[in-house]
Task: structure prediction
Amino acid sequence: MAQGQASAEKSLTRLVHRIFLGIAIIACLVLLVLWRTDNPRLERLRMGLVDSATPSMQWVSEPTQVIWNLARDYEEFVNVYEQNKALRKEIQSLRAWKETARSLEEENARLRRLNNVRVASRTTFVTGDVFADSGGPFLQSALVNVGREDKIVDGAAAVDGAGLVGRVVGVGERASRLLLLTDFSSRVPVVIQPGARRAVLAGDGTRAPKLIFLDGSEPVHAGDLIETSGDGGVFPPDIPVGQVLVAPGGTLRVNLLADYSRLEFVRLLLFNPNTEIDTPGGLVGTGIGEKEVTADDLVGAPDN
Amino acid sequence: MRPRDYLEPGRVFRMALASFLGVLAIYLEAAPLGIATGAPPSPDLLLCVVAYWSIRRPGSMPMLLVFILGLMRDLLTDVPVGAGVLTLILASEGFKVWRRHLQRTMFLTEWLSVGAVALASAALMWILVVMTFAQPPYLVALLHQCLYTAMVYPILVVILRWGLRVSWSRPEPAQ
Result:
């Protein structure tokens, strides 16, 4: 009797377990569809989770990075004395350049003032610490510990000391998600110098993204410089990206300037494109007199 | 297992430990050790933790916990959301079914099983990504990840078995 009851209970437990397994599988497939359709709720859930996990992730990632870097840079530690000496020497020469740059900037400002030139919008930046990456082969992305609190917006360009790294594709309060240039879904409008041929830099999961949709007919040579074109108004123009590589099949690829292997800090650019006046609103009435002229004033003015 | 069995203090402690290790595995996977393309991919540490627990202590690794950990990993490390959870749940359920057999065999069988499951999980994820018309990753990169996962598993076993003393559960009386 007791054995029969235990057996019935066991089969019921197994049935319930199977039902839960079925529900879990369906939930996973629904999540996959939501992911594929770029559902904003899923992105909000992701950034909310990233926001709350950021401090604890940093506790883990920082010591891990230190250990990793120690192991990787062991050989460099052996030569630390020589490196220190070389760096001091470089700092001395850079100080001289700093002074030169400052005096040139002042001179430039004076000349602009004299010419009454309209200065392009200034790009400022926020520096963030890269505390996580995608880890796997599915997506080339990274998490940075600056977010909406630091005025970061979706689409902001990320650069390291040498060149463009990627762009922001998700912003939380305290963290942002970067899509790297090497990712399959990365597309950036660029210009090839010299010649000013425009193209699109398309990531394809390799170290050197491809150049597609080239305009013009001027020849492109290996070593030509690639910069952002600023088309679309998302990225500021003239950010260095890389140099042209001509692959064996004739495909044009780009050797990125950004050093992804030592990506610890990135600068996120707060870029405000120039305001374009495309409507008359705000010009009519304001500034002419004290009173703002409304549509009623213009249409329904009584005839005297 | 009845719902009240989950409230037993020892099991609650083991579930908390499993959750902690699962979250730690996700954080370690996400640590930026190789951002550059071509850098060695992080091993699937969460799969290793879930596999160990599902084989040794299945009662402390319920499906809901696997689902939560998998979803957290998918969201934090940019694995296709849903595909990662699905493969993790199927792997966990598979290990729970085979655990009696694995308990009677050498560790090598368990090791090979984990490697094979890692490979099958990666293949399933790849197929799911292709089915959604998204760009799948290179198969070579996936194979590398599976290889690293298989290499890491014995190290994890040593840490959990001899460091944290998590060993085989006693057979249930009904069996």
Q: What stands out?
A: Confidence is low (pLDDT under 50) at residues 285-293, 298-304 of chain A. The helical segments of chain A are 2-36, 40-72, 74-78, 80-115, 295-299.
